[in-house]
Amino acid sequence: MANSTAEKARAAANEQINMMAVIAPAVGWLIPGAGHMIQKRWIRGALLLISISTLFMLGLLMQGRIYKANGGDILDILGFVGDVGAGGLYIVTMAKDWGQGAIAFATADYGTKFMIVAGLLNFIAVADAYHIAIGKKQ
Amino acid sequence: MTVTLNHFSAAFVFALFASIVFGITHRDTARDMIRYGLYCFAMFLGGTIVAGWAMWVLRR
Prior knowledge:
The complex is a heterodimer.
Chain A: H1 2-30, H2 34-37, H3 42-61, H4 74-84, H5 88-95, H6 106-133
Chain B: H1 7-26, H2 30-59
Helix pairs in contact in B: 1-2
């Protein structure tokens, strides 16, 4: 009887972990740092949110260009993959039609790279949220 | 609204935020996160300065 109850509790805990292993990366991709926040890593989540969002928005304000889905040049495809990592920030940017200007000066090119790097950093944050969810990391 | 950063401030901002994310995601304890973040920041910014001076030397 006692064993059965313990097994049920363990199964429920495992199910919860498995659910979190799916939800945390998805939420973390959509809103940078949110994957950590829903697992009660508030400070880490807030720092990730501030870092990734600021980098992305600075890129936009520096007149950086956002990449759309494309099947052309390999660098354009990689640029899209990087940008799309920013999740919700990328979706809003595309919806508002921001980041479409022609690059006219050197720092605008830095802006483009800032946005790509923000997306790539968010991919790392998503992987970290997953590792926390499966118990590989505290 | 447009933000114009010079080369060094762009490198500084990049190093700062990338180091924060690297520190959080690559280490397990708070102390190690801070240490690794500072290490990454120093490497990013130090690398930029070294590369800048190397290009200055090569140009001469």
